[in-house]
Amino acid sequence: MKKDLRTGLIAIVVMTVFLGLAYPLAITGISQVAFPGHANGSKVSIDGRIVGSKLIGQEFTEPKLGKNGKPVLDEEGEEVLVPIKSYFQPRPSATEYSADVTFFGNAAPDSVEAREEVREYMKAYLQLEKPYDKTLTSEGIPVDAVTQSASGVDPEISQANARIQAHRIAAVRKLPLSQVEDLISANTHGRFLGVLGEPGVNVLELNIALDKQAPTK
Hints:
The chain folds into 2 domains: about 1-40; about 45-215, no CATH class. The protein is about 40% helix and about 10% strand. The protein has helices at about 1-35, 35-40, 110-130, 160-175, 175-185, 205-215; strands spanning about 45, 50-55, 60-65, 80-85, 155, 190, 200. The strands form 3 sheets. Strands 5-7-6 form a 3-stranded antiparallel β-sheet. Strands 1-2 form a two-stranded antiparallel sheet. The longest helix has about 35 residues, at about 1-35. It is elongated.
């Protein structure tokens, strides 16, 4: 019995040191040397200032102003935020793109709550985009524009979503629509290994490219 206990204790200590300390340190060291950018979170910097990550989506919003020129507050006293019209917008997020937690509204397809949520997203999308594309209808809205991703921090939107938003961007930034569509193509990532998933447009990278070509005031 004592021999078995001693053997078991030694095994626990050895495996703890190897798998809990040596292995993680070795992998961390290798990744820092081989691909430090990916290992450190694929951070995106502009002029030495970190503005986000290629892997984590973020909102492009600003405070809604009232007739008095001051920010409008909600019932809890928080500022009401609205999309910045000169930037492409990400898909809906249950976490408001918080990097601290990832989840989505796990409601069943036949859930009344889920249907109402989609209707609200659809209404907001039409309000934002239809003034710049009169042909847009609810039937033409891409799925990713009115549904959350599984993680809640998806950094990409579909090409269809981006091309609808291109009308707004072109009008607000006073750019040819073709120029905005070229930027979308340049910032579209293809299928993984050429076969998995669908092409996606990284919203942060696209907005950075926009600012380089047509800076806003």
